[in-house]
Design brief:
There is one protein chain. The chain is of the alpha+beta class. The chain folds into three domains: about 5-170, PAS domain (Beta-Lactamase), CATH 3.30.450.20; about 230-335, Orthogonal Bundle (Helix Hairpins), CATH 1.10.287; about 345-490, Heat Shock Protein 90. The protein has helices at about 5-55, 95-100, 110-120, 165-215, 230-290, 300-335, 345-360, 385-400, 455-465, and strands at about 80-85, 90-95, 125-135, 135-145, 155-160, 345, 365-370, 380, 405-415, 415-425, 470-475, 480-490. It has a five-stranded antiparallel sheet with strand order 2-1-5-4-3. Strands 7-9-10-12-11 form a five-stranded mixed sheet, covered by helices on one side. A two-stranded antiparallel sheet has the order 6-8. It is rod-shaped, with a radius of gyration of 57 Å. The protein starts with a helix and ends in a 7-residue tail after the last strand. InterPro entries: HAMP_dom, HATPase_C_sf, HATPase_dom, His_kinase_dom, HisK_dim/P_dom, HisK_dim/P_sf, Sig_transdc_His_kin-like_C, TCS_sensor_his_kinase. It comes from Paenibacillus allorhizoplanae.
């Protein structure tokens, strides 16, 4: 059963119960009000007539009751019929309108017994109402008991009024309420069906959008809703926000997947090159070994030179592969979320140690040490080995891409940050390359084939900077050089 149908049934059921209760209360209230008015009129007519009759009651010397007489006023102008029954004489006196119809109001022994019991119980009111049919018409009769001075029941005064029109009115009212309730429920159910459809239309859009997203790749689709910010409006906004987050996540996953494929491809390429070199040199050594083995001839100087070069190449490519594997291991640890161990480190001795060892690196550019006074009393919360690796990565890159000119290191201080600036006068970069220089295996096209490297150094450097809550600024111009400014949070406990 759909939600729309359930809402409609709930609305209709609640309305049906409400209409039923309202109809029952209204019907019984109107019915009671109409009949109460009739009862009062009939009873009042009987009581007024009995007052005169009671005054005319007298006892004979023998204790016999004289004949009771009904008042002779004109009853043609009223709709009330009067009849007086003398119990002792068993005689009837009728009003003129009742005589006109030549009809007697029904009275039996049960009526006499009921009134007699009321007399015996000394009740304040000796009388009761009764509905009956006379000539196929409904009448309401009030039976009023008449007593003598000794409280003996001597007569019964009956006041009757036809109630056929009231009964028909009550029946018509009952049918009118039923028909009106049915029509109201039908109209309300139809209107509720329409309103439920309109109210649930955004939910249908949600389902359609979800189905389209499930069956396709259109993650940019959103649910259109221009209604009020009610529960459905908030649900629509929530789902739209969820779809936006799913789209962002999907894009990030897609980019990560492409980056992973590129990473595997680049890693395979970088590993294949040294392996090819090593395999070629091994084949060469094996060939030379076969030529000289089993003979008494010694290797010629050229063969010895070739063997030395081959072994040198093998050693160099093995070192290159070792560095590549170490870099890949470092990035794998970064991806795995490995937390590096950190301590409070005095930064100045660390930088001086890097500066001293940097001059031993292979380079053709001039190594210049600028002003490092800003490092005085600087304490950094970090890992000593990784911070040294960070600085060496930028220095080695500067040497690598500066065949001529100079590479300079200097320090600056800004608030609670310490900065290390490494600048060179090398080949520089295009501005299009800057957003990608920290990507894994990314190397500018200008440098490919000119300089050696794996393209992982800056990726590792960026990871180390992020782990130390730092940042890096890059300034470069093609053929003029590059500058990297590394910022690390620091404190200066002995600063004045």
């Amino acid at each position: 059963m759909s939600l729309r149908l359930r809402l409609t049934l709930w609305y209709s059921g609640i309305l049906a119960i409400t209409m039923l209760l309202f109809g029952i209360v209204l019907y019984f209230f109107l019915n009671y009000f109409l009949y109460d008015q009739i009862r009062q009129d009939v009873k009042r007519e009987a009581v007024n007539s009995s007052t005169r009759i009671q005054k005319s009651i007298a006892l004979s010397q023998k204790g016999l009751v004289v004949d009771l007489e009904l008042e002779s006023r004109d009853f043609y102008s009223t709709n009330t019929f009067l009849q007086l029954y003398n119990i002792a004489l068993k005689s009837f006196n009728r009003s003129q309108n009742l005589q006109y119809y030549d009809q007697t109001l029904p009275i039996g022994q049960s009526t006499i017994d009921k009134l007699q019991r009321q007399v015996d119980k000394l009740e304040d009111e000796i009388g009761y109402f009764e509905k009956t049919k006379i000539l196929n018409q409904d009448f309401l009769i009030y039976h009023l008991g008449l007593t003598d001075n000794k409280a003996h029941l001597i007569g019964i005064l009956q006041s009757a009024v036809p109630i056929g029109s009231y009964e028909r009115t009550a029946v018509m009212l009952r049918y009118t309420l039923i028909i009106w309730a049915i029509l109201t429920i039908i109209v309300a159910a139809s209107l509720g069906w329409f309103l439920a459809r309109k109210a649930l239309k955004p939910i249908e859009r949600v389902i359609d959008a979800a189905n389209q997203i499930e069956s396709g790749d259109d993650l940019e689709k959103r649910i259109h809703y221009d209604g009020p910010l009610d529960e459905i409006g908030r649900l629509t906004n929530t789902i739209n926000g969820m779809l936006a987050r799913i789209q962002i996540t999907y894009v990030e996953l897609d980019e990560a997947y492409r980056a992973q494929r590129r990473f595997v491809s680049d890693a395979s390429h970088e590993l294949r090159t040294p392996l090819t070199t090593i395999r070629g040199n091994v084949d060469l050594l094996e060939k030379m070994w076969k030529q000289t083995s089993g003979t008494k001839e010694l290797a010629t100087p050229d063969q010895v030179q070739m063997s030395l070069e081959a072994m040198h190449d093998i050693a160099g490519e093995a070192q290159r592969m070792s560095r590549l594997v170490n870099d890949l291991l470092a990035l794998a640890r970064a991806d795995a979320g490995v937390l590096m161990e950190k301590h409070s480190i005095e930064f100045k001795p660390l930088v001086h140690e890097v500066v001293r060892r940097a001059q031993l690196l292979e380079h053709t550019a001039e190594w210049q040490v600028g002003n490092l006074d800003a490092l005085e009393d600087a304490m950094v919360q970090g890992n000593r080995d990784y911070l040294q690796q960070l600085l060496f990565i930028f220095i080695e890159n500067a040497f690598k891409y500066t065949p001529m000119g100079s590479v300079t290191i200097e320090a600056i201080r800004r608030n609670s940050f310490i900065g290390v600036r490494i600048s060179d006068t090398g080949i520089g970069m295009d501005k299009e390359d800057i957003p990608h220089i920290f990507d894994r295996f990314y190397r500018a096209d200008l440098s490919r084939g000119v300089t050696t490297g794996t393209g992982l150094g800056l990726s590792i450097a960026k990871w180390i900077i992020d782990e130390h809550d730092g940042s890096v600024e890059v300034t470069t111009r093609k053929d003029e050089g590059s500058t990297f400014l590394i910022w690390l949070p620091a404190n200066f406990p002995h600063a004045i």
